[in-house]
Each structure stands twice: as C-alpha cells, then as structure tokens.
Amino acid sequence: MGLRNIIGKRLGLGLVRRRKPFSTATCDGDGNGNGNAKSINLYSAINQALHIALETDNRAFVFGEDVSFGGVFRCTTGLSDRFGKARVFNTPLCEQGIVGFGIGLAAMGNRAIAEIQFADYIYPAFDQIVNEAAKFRYRSGNQFNCGVSNKFPGLTIRAPYGAVGHGGHYHSQSPEAFFCHVPGIKVVIPRSPRQAKGLLLSCIRDPNPVVFFEPKWLYRLAVEEVPEHDYMLPLSEAEVIRQGSDITLVGWGAQLSVMEQACNEAEKDGISCELIDLKTLLPWDKETVEASVRKTGRVLISHEAPVTGGFGAEISASIVERCFLRLEAPVARVCGLDTPFPLVFEPFYMPTKNKILDAIKATVNY
C-alpha cells in the first residue's frame, strides 16, 4: 500500500487533537433554516454532495488516489458501489496526471471532480492548474474551457488541507495562497458541514475551474444539521457570523473555530468582536470586509499558513487601500510561522486562541 497511504489512513481514522469546531444553525434546502435535515459531520456532508452531483448529472466523474474504496478520509465511501467503477475510479499516484486528466475530461464535455489526497501533494499539479486549467478558456478565445457550459461541464479539484494534530510537514500544509494569485480559477474553503455540502455543489456547477480545500481537522469534529436534499450556497459572498463593534476578525476554514474562542474570551474583557468567514478566497468579498472595518476601525486576520506571503497580506493591503482613514490601528495578522510545518512543535507553530486574544487586546489598545 505504501507509507504515504498508511500514514494517510492513520490520519483519517484518528483525529486526536481537540479543537471545538464552529457550528452553524439548523438550515433548510437553501441554507437558511427549518427544512428536512440530519445531523452529520463534515466528511459525510461532502459525501452527500458527491452523491448528488453524480446522481443529477450522468456526465459527472469522481477520480483520484484510492477514491474507489472511499478515500483516506472516507469522503467517497459508497460512490463506486452506487455509480460503478466507470464513473468513480482510482488513478495512479500522480497529481499532475490527475489534474491533467481532469482538464481533458472536462474539455470533452464531462463534469470532472478530481481528488488530491492531501493538499501538501498538490504542488506537482501546479503547472496543470495554473498554466492549463486557469488559462484554458482565455488562450483559446473561449473555444475550449474546463468550466461549466452546455458543452463543457467543468472541473473541481478537492484537497484536504491544514493541521491535523500529528501530520508533520507532509500532511498539514495550507497552500491556498499559492492559488489565490491565479486569475481564471476560484478558491473555496468551508468551515462547517452545511457549508461543505452547499459550497461543493456550487463549485461543481460553477462556470470556472475551482480548487476546493477541505479542513481535514473538521472532517469528524464538526457536526451540525445539514439538509438532506440538493442545495447550493453562493460563492464569493462572505458571511458575518458574529456581530461586533470594536474589532473585525477575518478568517476561513478550521481557523474560525479558534477565532471564535478568542472572541468569547475578549468579550469577557469588554471587547466586542465581529467575525467574518470569507468562504471564497478567490475572488473574495471585499465589500463585506470593508463595511465591517469601516464600522469597527480595527481588523485582525488569521490563517494557518505562514504569515509571509499568506493570503492575509492581500486582505491587509486591500483594507489599507480602501479604509486607511478609518483605521484606528495597524492591521494585525496572527498566522503560522515562517518555517516548514513541524511535528513535535506544532502547538508552537499554530495561530492559537491565546495568540489571537493577545493580538486583539494589542490592536484595541493601540
């Protein structure tokens, strides 16, 4: 089976590090409440979305390393049995080939849903994503593309990302910033089961190739009520998940649960925090963030990726351009360290609740 798959299985079956996930309210089919719903975790929500995608479009295919038996994290469980190995199938251990095959499959009129087993291994596919998928429509004058149309259904690339408690430097990275520099693709990261299902279905049906990063830490830890039927959530639309007046916090994915804990602690000291989930990083919702920063006058951005060159830097630059005269303090960033992702020293690397809380206090008292 190979060391990589053995390690992956251990990661998928034993998320030992504890972090309270952010939970959203019960929702209906369009994501807003009171429908037929079932309490499931994040990986089950993704599994539901894939079942729906394959069931509603016979041109849809799911492929990647070990997806036929369910994948390392079991997100593709049952797909091969239900839809057959012609539509859900394994690939060689070659990320460049997986994405290149997906581009060709989409260009031939199919809905390609590719899985990269870990986001840490997406780098061999970088050329295919950046120079082929993202530019296919542009360089052909819209004669060919790997987005959604009647002739060209689309390409979605799924990849588990982020810390997991014991993954080390090959199973813990957050590479989203590399792809946020690329016109022609979208980058989406959910924070909860409801989001994971609705956003993934939106990505699969979007007219552009999409990289969909899944927070593997929350695969089993995040549990909430999720509609059982088909629904979609809008892309490029941030969500204010906590109202506040003193400081704006901006994040995405699993990091939001840590930020929420810091907000709760700050509230005990009389600091009112507004918390925003971007959901889509490319293109991101500048207007929602700007409106919040103009109200609070302060902003803190947090992500697991290293601070230098992280997507938080782009958000910071945009805020300074748009809200400079409204800022009461410099833009704060609480991120991963500028080191390879460590194993034993992961707790020191991570942007923890206490680090965020200290930055909140320093920014408010600037």
TrEMBL record:
GO terms for molecular function: branched-chain 2-oxo acid dehydrogenase activity. It is found in: Mitochondrion matrix. Its cofactor is thiamine diphosphate. SMART domains: Transket_pyr (SM00861). Keywords: Mitochondrion, Oxidoreductase, Transit peptide. Residues 40-221 form the Transketolase-like pyrimidine-binding domain. One of its GO terms (biological process) is response to nutrient. The keyword Oxidoreductase applies. It catalyses: N(6)-[(R)-lipoyl]-L-lysyl-[protein] + 3-methyl-2-oxobutanoate + H(+) = N(6)-[(R)-S(8)-2-methylpropanoyldihydrolipoyl]-L-lysyl-[protein] + CO2. InterPro entries: THDP-binding, Transketo_C/PFOR_II, Transketolase-like_Pyr-bd, Transketolase_C. Coiled coil: none annotated. It is an enzyme of class 1 (oxidoreductase). One of its GO terms (cellular component) is mitochondrial matrix. The keyword Transit peptide applies. Its main location: mitochondrion. Its EC number is 1.2.4.4. Heterotetramer of alpha and beta chains. This is 3-methyl-2-oxobutanoate dehydrogenase (2-methylpropanoyl-transferring). It comes from Gossypium raimondii (Peruvian cotton).
